[in-house]
Amino acid sequence: MNIKELNPDASPQAAFGAYLRKCREERGWKQEDLAARMEYSSTHISSVETGRKMPTLRFARSADLALGTGDAFERRWREMKHGVLLEGFPEYAGLEGRAAEIRVFEIGIVPGLLQTPEYAQVLADSAVLRGAITPEQAAERVSFVAERQAAMERIRPPMVFVVMDESCIRRTIGGPEVMDAQLDRLIEFAGRPNTVLQLAPYDIGERRPFDLPVYLLTMPDRSVACYAEAQTLGRLDRETTSVLPVLTAYHQLQAESFSQAASVEMISKLRKGTP
């Protein structure tokens, strides 16, 4: 039998396929055996193992069930699908789509949930020019922003609280046209019945409790999750003892920030070019 050699380092897709073959062979199964248990064809199994076919989320979950690997394949699929994202963020985004309340603090750039497609595209294209990601990954990143925003448009939308450092509106991204449309988007967002938008002004000084972006989710069962990130590291935390102090600090940040009315006024003046 001609068995194709696999190189797991060739790509995340190849690594997924190599891991699938390894798990299958450890159990002494042929591709036909695994195919029967997963309810896929043996040709499909072969295509995934050799990296010719991209696995789907359904495939990954079916593999975990058939092979008894917990969520190992699902995690590998999410890492492959969202490889351009920091660790922890894909899991956070999955929770975000089900949250009852979302709290966001951002520095330097407009948060993804509020970005226009053009603003998101400029950020992604800039990362490509720096060599940080590929054009394909840039397209995935922009698509992911759109998916997160679409998940907010549901029958019972979450309450969304956003505090942005003043730098988010002062830092020009993509030129005047892109920035004007983005500022319009912020004003529109603030006018929704389920949103609160505040700016943390520069002169808040040392009273600003966060120096990095912070995201807090209150789930329908009232549990709270926190995601925080640095330049190259992201972490999701669901432990009450460590998450509640962050929630308290967020409330303190809101108290020190401008009201929504004052924030919208500042954004409107900047949109009109008024000092």
In short:
The chain has 275 residues and is an alpha/beta fold.
Tell me roughly what share of residues is in helical segments: 40-55%
Number of helices: 12
Q: Which second-level CATH architecture of the largest domain applies?
A: 2-Layer Sandwich
Structural category is alpha/beta
CATH class of the largest domain: Alpha Beta
Major beta-sheet overview: 6 strands, mixed
Based on CA atoms alone, the radius of gyration comes out at 22 Å
Which superfamily, in CATH terms, is the homologous superfamily of the largest domain? Answer: Endonuclease Chain A
Strand order of the biggest β-sheet: 3-2-1-4-5-6
> How many structural domains does the protein architecture include?
2
Q: Per DSSP, what share of the residues sits in E-state strands of 2 or more residues?
A: 5-15%
Low-pLDDT parts are none
Cα end-to-end separation: 74 Å
Query: Tell me, what's the shape?
Result: elongated
CATH topology of the largest domain: Endonuclease, Chain A
H-E string: HHHHHHEHHEHHEEEEHH
Q: Tell me the number of strands.
A: 6
What does this structure look like?
- The chain has helices at residues 12-26, 31-38, 42-49, 57-67, 72-81, 89-96, 117-129, 135-151, 167-170, 175-190, 240-256, 260-271, and strands at 101-106, 159-165, 195-200, 214-218, 224-229, 234-237.
- With 275 residues, it is an alpha/beta fold.
- The chain folds into two domains: 12-69, 434 Repressor (Amino-terminal Domain) (Orthogonal Bundle), CATH 1.10.260; 89-111 and 155-271, 2-Layer Sandwich (Endonuclease, Chain A).
- It is elongated, with a radius of gyration of 22 Å.
